[in-house]
Amino acid sequence: MKYSILTVFLSVAIPSFCSFSALAEVAVVVHPSNQVNLTKNDIKKIYLGKMKNFADGKVILPIDLTEGSDTRSIFNTELLGKSSSQIKAYWSKLIFTGKGTPPINVKSESEVINTVSTNPSTIGYVDASKVTDKVKVIIKF
Amino acid sequence: MKITNTSILIFILTSVIAFTSKADVKFSGYGSVVAGQTLDDGERFTADFFEVGQYENELTFNAETMIALQLTSNLADNLMITGQLTTKGSDEFKPEFSWYYLTYFAENDWTVMLGRRNIPMYYYSEFYDVGFAYPWMRPPSNLYWWQIVQFNGLHVSKDFSLGDLSNNVTVYYGNENSEDNKEMGFYAEQGFYDTAENKAIGVNENWRDITGVSWNISGDFFDVRIAYMEHQLDRDFVMDNDTIRVGLRTSQKFYGVGGSLDFNPFTVLFEYNYVRRYDTNQEEWPTFLLSLVYTWNEFQPYIVYSKADQYRVFGKEYEEHTLISYGIRYDFANSASLKVQFDNFNDQGHEPSGWDFHGSSDTLSFGIDFVF
Questions:
Q1: What are the pLDDT digits (tens) for B162-212?
Q2: How far apart (Å, rounded) are the C-alpha atoms in residues A113 and B84?
Q3: Any CB–CB contact under 8 A between A98 and chain B?
Q4: pLDDT for B325-358, tens place per residue?
Q5: Helices and strands in chain B: count of H runs, count of E runs
Q6: What pLDDT does residue A12 have?
């Protein structure tokens, strides 16, 4: 009995405590023509709606993967430092007071690559293994 | 310039007609289904002062359950219209367009909003009803106790950076005339505004020239908001002999600072407000809250303490209460959370003069907050 409780506990606890970074690497990508230099903190601000323009003044259009995507979970916990529901709570304050609009959601990583490769205003993130030469990687973590 | 309901509605309708593009309407929303009751007979706990949402010693879903549907539509590239249709248990689930406003996004991160919105008075004032946005069941109700929370007005705001800090400064102006105000009506029922001959059966509360400014500063691990607001206050009592008795002709000033500090996995939430009324009583209301939240995966156990005081030129023997609440939030889905909260309301108001009319109470509430 003791053994089975321990097994149940560990099987629940280990995945919840382990960092996702062991599973995959995420790459933040922009249009190849974009000469932007962004720190992790800048990217965090962009995805929380606190930084709206690139250094050259162009409006930034951040692209998010839809909820449930593993890459999105890694991005949220590793870079934004919040769980998906905490991010949602953060945005719900802004959405329902008219103070902000969350990033556009796209369904797949290939769609992120396509959108970013065709629109120089966008920024996105994908699993590092899905990067192609149509986009430029600015940071990996 | 007087901003009234009618003038705003006319302005919004003309704008909608002027831009009769086949604009897409986007729907979203939020809601809470909450049940609760006080633990002892004869106790009453006001969870929502403005709507007079109260718990007594019988389980009810009506004190705080509510749902809001938000509709937004872009009338032009930089012009958006927003409406919120809300329905609340405390208002017998009567649907009401409680928010409607236009947003104009100007150059250089300037934004102009015109219409009906919540007054950005305290830290949680604008999103008090969006339970999913904060850990607690509700922001401590003994601070969020004002009888006017919405107004028709004009907001101008600017986003800017100072070094690594994100800033927003908003200035606003507007009016709100609330005839037969619900919360004031509850106080009238307690007999506070009766004369020797007549009973007050209703209260007309008019807040004119509501003028304020708030400044939000956020950094990597903190978020602070400093606010100031003032307005003219006209209050009249409707008496049971069909006469109107003049209550107040005065003004009020609000000062506040509030925010959050993130020491992952702990979050500290705090707020201090001070309100001054310039009537013969020279009333003052200092209030504050302090909360500690611990985040463990999808769980957030928390504690929040709040205190409200009332002073007059004659002394401090008036309204005074503390509220200590313990609870837990569990995000069982990305868009929904389960909350359980215990509230210990301790009424320390001056008993001989009846200022302890709220009464102490212990209340248990549980519910689900969601967004869609």
A1: 988 999 999 999 999 999 999 999 999 999 999 999 999 999 999 999 999
A2: 36
A3: yes
A4: 999 999 999 899 999 999 999 999 999 988 999 9
A5: 2, 18
A6: 47
Q: Residue A42's Cα: distance from chain center in Å?
A: 13
Structural domain contains residue A11: no
A75 DSSP assignment: I
According to DSSP, the β-strands at B165-178 and B150-162 are: antiparallel
Average predicted confidence (pLDDT) for chain B: 94
Residue B315 has what pLDDT? 87
Answer yes or no: is A100 within a domain: yes
Cα(B9)–Cα(B76) distance, integer angstroms: 19
- Nearest residue, CB atoms, A92 vs list B133, B218, B297: B133
Q: Retrieve residue B258's tokens.
A: 């509030």
Please say if the pLDDT value at position B14 is more than 80. Answer: no
Residue A84: list chain B partners with CB under 8 A: 334
Distance CA A65, CA B252 (A): 48
In a domain, A58, yes or no: yes
- Contact yes or no for A81 and B264 at CB 8 A: yes
Structure tokens at B186: 């509850």
- Domain enclosing residue A57, as ranges: 25-140
ipTM over 0.85: yes
pTM: 0.90
Q: How many structural domains comprise chain A?
A: 1
Q: Which residue has the tokens 């957030």?
A: B300
Beta bridge mates, B262: B267
Identify the three-state secondary structure at position B125.
helix
A59 contacts chain B (CB < 8 A):
no
| Burial (Cβ within 10 Å: 0-12, 13-18, ≥19) of residue B366 | middle
Q: What domains, with CATH codes, occur in chain B?
A: 5-371 (2.40.160.10)
CATH number for the domain including A73? Answer: 3.40.190.10
Query: Which chain B residue is nearest to residue A93, measuring alpha carbons?
Result: B133
Q: Tell me which residues of chain B have a C-beta less than 8 Å from any C-beta of chain A.
A: 28, 30, 68, 70, 82, 84, 101, 103, 109, 113, 117-118, 126-127, 130, 132-134, 159, 161, 164, 166, 168, 218, 220, 264, 295, 297-298, 331, 333-335, 337, 371
Task: Report how far residue B241's alpha carbon sits from residue B243's, in angstroms, rounded to the nearest whole number.
Answer: 6
List pLDDT tens digits, range B359-370.
Answer: 999 999 999 999
Residue B256, C-beta contacts closer than 8 angstroms, at least 6 positions apart: B121, B122, B123, B225, B226, B227, B228, B271, B272, B273, B274
Contact A86 B166 (CB under 8 A): no
